[in-house]
Amino acid sequence: MFIINCPFCGEREQSEFKAGGEAHIERPKQPTELSDDEWAEYLFMRKNIKGIQFERWNHIHGCRKWFNMVRDTSNDEIKAIYKMGEKPPVK
Amino acid sequence: MKNIAVVEKGWIGGGNTGRNTTIIRSNYLWDASAGLYNHALKIWEGLSQELNYNVMFSQRGVMNLAHNLQDVRDLKRRTHANRLNGIDAEYLNTEEVKKFCPIINTSPDIRYPVLGGTLQRRAGTARHDAVAWGYARGADEMGVDIIQNCEVKAIKRNGDSVKGLETTKGFIKTNKIGVVAAGHSSVIANMAGLKLPLESKPLQALVSEPVKPIIDTVVMSNAVHAYVSQSDKGELVIGAGTDDYISYSQKGSHDIVEGTLNAILELYPIFSRMRMLRQWGGIVDICPDASPIISKTSIKGLYFNCGWGTGGFKATPGSGDLFAHTIANDEPHELNAAFNINRFVSGDLVDEHGAAAVAH
Lengths: 91, 360
What we know:
The complex is a heterodimer.
Chain A: E1 3-6, E2 10-13, E3 18-22, H1 36-43, E4 52-58, E5 66-72, E6 77-83
Antiparallel strand pairs in A: 1-2, 3-4, 4-5, 5-6
Chain B: E1 5-7, E2 23-24, H1 31-51, E3 62-66, H2 69-84, E4 90-93, H3 94-100, E5 116-120, E6 124-125, H4 128-141, E7 145-147, E8 152-158, E9 161-167, E10 170-173, E11 177-179, H5 185-191, E12 199-210, E13 218-221, E14 226-230, E15 235-242, H6 254-267, E16 276-286, E17 293-296, E18 302-306, H7 316-329, H8 343-346
Helix pairs in contact in B: 1-7
């Protein structure tokens, strides 16, 4: 378990949040033009990184808002938290 | 194929193989899964003889409990589906559940009362370490090189086909590589420039202090997320759930354990004074449809056996057998044809979230 600093509510326990998986996967702009391979890539294929990962979280037991997080998945250390629509603050 | 090496970063049996809840069953819903898991179960039944190594396979039965009306409907449906596929399955009412495992609290006034359950009598457990050691000895006798403490650093490609492995002990030239790396499958796939439909998450289990025989079967409950059996040493072996975030930390959240133990105590008040000896978190690779991948890839000579998620141990003999067939023939066996990577493109998924026994 770790502490997450919700950009809207402040520090709360991780159990208050729901992980939303990999961030910055863009919804296809022209869904009707997509091939099966491109759909598979969008829907199912994931980087599943061991190391620095950009991901989405939702404070489901709090403000219920979505935000982004940069976390090292090898030790769960949180590097940065930023709001939806903002550019990631670290590379 | 005779010239085979197993390259292992740690030691044989040191990963999830030696740290799982050792449950073996084949009562999955869909035809493809029934074929795969029942193939494994049949091999389990003769495995100690075949390996000449006692894997302590014990067909003590696995019971899945129903706690609400939808559970009852789902489990009855699964019982019928199992029977149509030639898998032994019975539906039990509350009294029959109590008779089969008397320590379960079947009182109607608990938070999630036991409304019934399914029973697969041929299911059970095996000694996980013995399985790893027995297979390792058998493979060694057949001339397989088992190279331990040797980490794979890179997969070398020649255009669209593999040409070898870069390891911490040097380069291994080969035109066929089979990857069985559980939670780290995506990391290995990344070395070959491949993306997989997997997410790796911590799955926790815990073991109690040893006590005299008290539960002689395996009881699983999806709705309240708890399953328990007793090892031959006398420890209660309890399985908890996965965390919902991707992590390779091998540390799970405490609230996951707490939730599982709450459920265990509600169902088995007799365990209230038990002390837990060990807890651990293993990293499991989960597919979107909760079914595994035993498949060729877009790279020639590169094969993956992954995505077993929260329940790969039960399939060990079958998955190994079918993976070997796939690698040797460069074509899947009919039993693992449905478990190809391409199903995520075609949409022909094998959705086994319901039969994964506990929701993850």
